[in-house]
Amino acid sequence: MRCPYCTGESAVIDTRELDNGETIRRRRRCKHCDRRFTTYERVESVNVMVVKKNGDREPYDREKLLRGLRVAAYKRPISADVIDTLVTEVEAALIAYDALEVPSSVIGEQVMERLRSLDEVAYIRFASVYRSFSDLGKLREAVEELMEKE
Predict the structure, then answer these.
(1) How many domains does the structure of the chain reveal?
(2) I need a labelling partner for 50 at 20 to 30 A (CA). Which of 25, 91, 99, 110 fits?
């Protein structure tokens, strides 16, 4: 693999399995500039179309889900590894759903179910975008619902 810093060839110096063997993490060292970097390998197993609320269809995009979760978890005590694991769990649920098309609501509910127990602030942030709260009253209802379940 080419070095992202100088485009020289690299060598693997460490390999580890993550996410119960679903992901392989490799530490690499460039043979030219001697800098180190990390790569990840994972099987692209989720091959479904997401049906949006407006009826549009688009291919499932892991990176899009990761971006949304990173925004929700911004400045919260949630590591990148935890977010990655959450997305892997959601993908496992999508595979179990066993359909060629999945409503975006299924993905959103899977994420919110996991975020609720992980971090309440990140949950509310994600829910505010996912559920498109139109006013403060709707947001208040979501917060009150969260507080009742404690």
Answers:
(1) 2
(2) 25
